[in-house]
C-alpha cells in the first residue's frame, strides 16, 4: 500500500536576542543598541568578541527574508526588521557588481543617500517606529540609522564577495527576494 505522509513544517522567524533593552537609550521607540563599530555615531560601542544586532541581521537574513509577516517580540525586533530590509536593498544594489571594487562603490553611493526617519517620505515602515517628538530625536535616530547602515554595509561586503573579490552567488541570489512584500527602490 502506497501513500503519502503529510508533513507539516512550521517556519518561524528568527528574533533578536536583545530582549532586555530597559536600560538602553531609545529614539522613535527603537533601542539604540551597541555596535561593534569604529564608525562615528550615537551607538554605544560593544565588545568586539560579542554578537551585536548587525551580526544577527546578517546571520538571520537568508531565513527571515522569506517571511511576509514578522511577529515583533521585543523592540530590538523592529531594528532587525529594518536591517533585514536594508540588507535586501544593499544586495539589490550589489546585484550587477561583478567585483568587490564595484560593490564597494555601489555601497558607498547607497551610504550617501539621505536616510529618512519615521514620518518622512521614503521611510519603508510607517507605523513600525514612532514619529520623532522633536528635531533632536529625529536627528539622533537618523544618525543611528546612518551609522548602523554603514556598519551593516561593510560587514555585508565581506559575505557578499569572496576573498578573491568575486561575487558570492549564495548571497547575491537573495537580491531577488522581496522582504515582507516591500518593493525596494
Describe this structure in words.
- GO terms for molecular function: actin binding.
- InterPro entries: ARPC3, ARPC3_sf.
- It comes from Salvia splendens.
- The chain has 185 residues and is an all-alpha fold.
- The protein has five helices and two strands; from the N terminus they run ββααααα.
- It has helices spanning 53-64, 75-94, 100-112, 135-160, 169-172; strands at 26-27, 30-31.
- A two-stranded antiparallel ribbon has the order 1-2.
- The radius of gyration is 17 Å and the shape is globular.
- The N and C termini lie far apart (53 Å).
- Mean pLDDT is 85; it is low at 1-10.
Helices and strands, in order, run as EEHHHHH
Q: How are strands sequenced across the largest beta sheet?
A: 1-2
User: Total helix count?
Assistant: 5
Mean pLDDT: 85
> SS-based structural class?
mainly alpha
Strand % is: under 5%
Shape: globular
Instruction: Estimate percent helicity.
Output: 40-55%
**Termini, distance in Å?**
53 Å
What is the β-strand count? 2
Low-confidence stretches: 1-10
* Rg calc: 17 Å
For the biggest sheet, the summary is:
2 strands, antiparallel
Amino acid at each position: 500500500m502506497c501513500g503519502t505522509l503529510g508533513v507539516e513544517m512550521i517556519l518561524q522567524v528568527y528574533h533578536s536576542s536583545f530582549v532586555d533593552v530597559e536600560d538602553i537609550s531609545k529614539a522613535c521607540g527603537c533601542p539604540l543598541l551597541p555596535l561593534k563599530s569604529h564608525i562615528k555615531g550615537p551607538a554605544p560601542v560593544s565588545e568586539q568578541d560579542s554578537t551585536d544586532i548587525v551580526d544577527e541581521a546578517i546571520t538571520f537574513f537568508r531565513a527571515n527574508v522569506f517571511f511576509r509577516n514578522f511577529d515583533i517580540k521585543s523592540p530590538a525586533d523592529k531594528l532587525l526588521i529594518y536591517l533585514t530590509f536594508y540588507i535586501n536593498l544593499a544586495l539589490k544594489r550589489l546585484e550587477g557588481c561583478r567585483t568587490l571594487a564595484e560593490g564597494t562603490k555601489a555601497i558607498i553611493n547607497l551610504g550617501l543617500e539621505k536616510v529618512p526617519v519615521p514620518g518622512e517620505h521614503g521611510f519603508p515602515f510607517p507605523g513600525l517606529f514612532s514619529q520623532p517628538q522633536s528635531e533632536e530625536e529625529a536627528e539622533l535616530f537618523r544618525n543611528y540609522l546612518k551609522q548602523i547602515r554603514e556598519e551593516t554595509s561593510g560587514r555585508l561586503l565581506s559575505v557578499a564577495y569572496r576573498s578573491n573579490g568575486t561575487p558570492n552567488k549564495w548571497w547575491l541570489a537573495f537580491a531577488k527576494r522581496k522582504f515582507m512584500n516591500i518593493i525596494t527602490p
